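Form 12-C: Joint structure prediction
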Amino acid sequence: MGLFLSTFVNKVDRKGRVSVPATFRATLSAQTFQGIIAYRSFTAACVEGCGMDFMERLSDSAQSFDAFSAEQEDISALIFADARQLSWDPEGRILLPEDLIDHAGLSETAAFVGKGQTFQIWQPEAYKAMEAEIRSRALKNRPTLPLKPKTGGA
Amino acid sequence: MGLFLSTFVNKVDRKGRVSVPATFRATLSAQTFQGIIAYRSFTAACVEGCGMDFMERLSDSAQSFDAFSAEQEDISALIFADARQLSWDPEGRILLPEDLIDHAGLSETAAFVGKGQTFQIWQPEAYKAMEAEIRSRALKNRPTLPLKPKTGGA
DNA sequence: GTGAATACCATTGACGCCCATGGCTACCCA
DNA sequence: TGGGTAGCCATGGGCGTCAATGGTATTCAC
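Section 2 - Result
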């Protein structure tokens, strides 16, 4: 299973095009749709991104009540309505729609931020600020991450 | 299952390259991604290192979000966003990104410190100081490590 | 017909790959 | 037991390739 890792800052050109990081494209290469799914985050000033398979999983989850609460059903409804398929050109660039650019406050550059199964697109300075905040909070709280035991193999 | 054991101090060349200890490479040799995952520790001046399988376990753990507090989501966000895939060259070297070098205060040499399932990369002098501190604390506190019973296989 | 979106092409700079070297160790053989 | 040798691992540097980027042309839609 491929993951979206690391953060890449790429330029947005005059036409609104931006290169999707090569490693992200590699992560999505197995999928039928050659591109990304993008929708406006409703918790932060950024764009959420993922592959089609994640959308399908989201859809499956929304079906089963016990997995998703009513609120979460609302959320998934929002997501599906807002989501758009952005296919990349032969060079691996996507064209960012105007409203996504507005929502994330993008201008010259865009930061692709890996979140594991998904990723986000931020205005780089805004992300830096957000990251600093989270990092300082982590430093204070020293939270721990309960690791699941290894699944299946090895 | 392979573990990361012992400590190795290797040189960082002018291009920022450093050899990953051969035994660490052997530990990771079975994995799909031939290289290491590295991210800045948020509790110490060092770089955390692991294999892709460890990252995937982390991602799996993050999936069940009812088990996840906001804090813990913070952590996984920080880790995935900061994690870089550093593949090694045919000689077993990785290229250390500038900000990782800065965070750990690396210059001429780097210490690879085994931590079992994961490892860390330290500025050698800094690690020596940290180790001395931990050791003296252990002498005082006599910490214990509850051993799990053997799980089924291997 | 005009504008936008997509495809095509060219440039460049970073990164990955290749070859060469040196030192240490472990092994072999006398 | 000691010298020689071979192999592995860490190291240094040069070169080619690919990803990111900027621009132009062509096609599609309205």
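Section 3 - Comments
DSSP finds five helices and eight strands in chain A. Chain A touches chain B at residues 1, 3-7, 23, 113-117, 131, 134-135, 137-139, 141-151, 154 (CB under 8 Å).
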